[in-house]
Amino acid sequence: MVGFAPVGRWERPPKDLPNSLSPWIPEEFWPQSIYPEAKTVVVIGLPVSLPIVETAPSIYYHELYKTVNSMLDSKAYEISNYLSEKGFGAIYLPRDAYGDIKILIDKPFAFFSHKHAAYLAGLGSFGHNNVLLTPEYGPRVRFTSIFTTAKIKGDRIKTEDLCTHCLLCVKNCPVGAIPKTGDFPPPVDKKLCAVRSAELRDEYRSPCGVCIKVCPVGQDRELFGRKNMAIYSKSKKFGKYHKAWEHVRKYGSK
Question: What is the 3-state secondary structure (H, E, C) of 131-184?
Fold first, then answer.
């Protein structure tokens, strides 16, 4: 996936955004506050396969997560170099800009938000779990960004709120980090989330992934035959799937 967002969208948010974010993105997190010459943010995204995410937390999803992050970093680096060779200053940003998950327990922010960049590049809207939802893959996409001095026309903002407000993410969060009521999207308890991720990291099966695997949004559900959300219940009808997921979870991690 790819989207383009002029940096002015951080200063002057488009009126047709699908969600109202309050508070707005602080100025220190704007792209032009990080790379003052930036004119456009190029956002790229790669999907994480739903049947693999369904095994989470597991070594399988752990490896997929690392692979997609590595590919995003590589592609963003190549794109920034390409733009520079064409005469436009460009720098890539790493997908995960923190030294260790335990850093996020006390300082739960990276220096730039790729999901907000994807939002402003017209790639989707926010879900109740505060993750970006896309029509194609729901929340099962990883994003990263490239800042460039090239002036590129911004993509049209998608005005539809993709979230179905089913609250499955709330009901299935293993640490209760997602509020049921309040502002939308609600502020997720990032510390609880980070503590959970740190524990899973020590077991070689991070990240958690539960709230993105149970989200009903995404055309990938039809592709993989996962439109019936009862698949995540303990119904005997879906026993073969649960048996497969449990098999994966038994091996390769604590």
Answer: CEEECCCECCEEEEEEEECCCCCCCCCCCCCCCCCCCHHHHHCCCCCCCCCCCC
